[in-house]
Please model this.
Amino acid sequence: MQTRTACPHHDFGAGFDPLDLRDPFPALAQAQQERTVFYSPAIDYWVVTRHADIKAIFRDHHRYSAANTITPIVPFSEAVKQLLADGDYSPEPVLSNNVPPSHTRIRSLVNRLFTPRRMKSFAPIIRQIAQEAVAQLPAPPVDIVSALTYTFPAQVLFAVLGVPEVDVPQVKAWAGERIKLYYGRPSPAEQLEMTADLVPFWRYVVALVAEKAQAPGDDLISDLVRMRNDDDNIISLNEIASCMITLLVAGHETTTAQLSNALLHLLNPPRAQAAEDYAGVDHSLWQTLCEEPALVPQALEEMMRYDPSVCAWRRLTLAPSTIGGAHIPAGANLLLMLHAANRDPALFPEPDVISLTRDNLKEQLAFGYGIHYCVGAPLARLEMRILLETLLEELPALRLVAGQELDYPRNISFRGPLSLWVRW
Model:
């Protein structure tokens, strides 16, 4: 592993806080101009900022491993390890932190859960959930995060996975603690407290999978159980449980943050919109979508480019590498700044401007790239589109409450406002 004293880019990284997600864009834009790859001593990671470099790393899984994707930034103490062992906490690498050939075997099965035809079959129930959730909003002003975007993605995910909706509050709480544990910097005492929540979360998922194995239903967990055909060589029940605990975190927390980011910018873009796109300084993106709802899919892609909820992802070097002029040893951790890549001026002209006329949004990396491209992307796009369409129809006068200050969680990977007050 590299030593901090010998790091050639220590000077730039020393002032960079990778957990401060309030407004990381100016520092990352500066990095793209001055040090496209630099070392962060705060977390012992090399930070990569350019789109071309990140895409190449995602593509080359022979030189860059996904094995560190779900690794705690703060290594587990012996007390934490013992608590996990005593609780039979035994998830295996299956999706985002797995590597071929095991990844290939499992991913080929999970891909079949998210086919366009299967997703289309869920559209009516998703629309029903969206309509009911919007109808139940309290009188304004409302924190749209706590009242809607926090729970809606979990309600959708639970419906398609076959998880009881009554469990949404508990699973959301568990998922939030797991993100803090693996992607934040908890103290030793906080680590123990969060780990105490992780064990019942795992036991819940194991019991859920066992229940589906005994009595399969019309849901995605049951689909995976049926694919197994009682053959561990196809996929084991423990691997299915490992897939489910991953989906029961990433499958809704990321969508919560992305919807919140999208609403923030659609209602009040923080920077001037391109003059050729919109007429008049008071003409918001929300008004544009009310007038042209067919633009919602394009708007969502631009929101994911402009402010992706998964703002950074990780890789591990398997051999010495030179990236952006930085010489990086084998066994080094890489932090791939997806939000920087999505604003790389080499690919996206005027990257800090929100535009609905970009013709290269397929290049945005909000869902990753390559063999680990987000398996749930079709569901995420579908549910976000349906919720925005419902809000545009039911609350066309939606607007932000003026003067509010936004707060963001402290972690390296998941960015979205913790609250967002609106009125109509």
